[in-house]
Amino acid sequence: MSQSAYIKLVKGSQDQELTLEHIKATLLRYREQTARTGEQLGWDYAEAAFPYTIESSGDERWFYLKGINVHYKHIIMGPSTSTSVGGDQVPCIQVVLPEEATHGDKAKANELCRYLAKSLAAELTMFNGRTVYYNPRK
To answer: What is the DSSP letter of 112?
Structure first.
């Protein structure tokens, strides 16, 4: 059975709407940052930190990350809506691990979810149901 994580743009988040291109741009920024870290260390860290290629789907509602080696298969991402604690519909990023996903996919998806949530100052509901708040709360 597939598992999902949600990165919700709640009150206090940097952005209040999401597009497919915005999500892709954030992932590309992550890949660029890890490549720079690898240059400083003298190691090809970019491939280890982001072992995927970004592949488009046919309907442009979502995209998937396709693994470049045998330890990684697929992660699916796309904008969606979710219900917040107050019952309101809020924009979110849904991250799906399909049935054929590996343990490496789940670990990397957790890492990418944390990065996306932190960069968007959002609320993250992880695959295990726990919630992490990266947004400023009062």
So the answer is: H
* HEC assignment per residue over 14-83: CCCCCCHHHHHHHHHHHHHHHHHHHHHHCCCHHHHHCCEEEEECCCCCCEEEEECCCCCCEEEEEEEEEE
Note the pLDDT tens digit of each residue in 45-75.
888 888 999 998 777 789 999 999 899 999 9
Residue 93's beta-bridge partner residues? 7, 79
Whether 112 has a pLDDT exceeding 70, the answer reads yes
Rounded CA separation 110/103 (Å): 11
Nearest to 65 by CA among 50, 78, 79, 75: 75
Where are the domains positioned within the chain? 3-133
Range 3-133: architecture per CATH: 2-Layer Sandwich (3.30)
Q: Which residues pair with 91 in a beta bridge?
A: 81
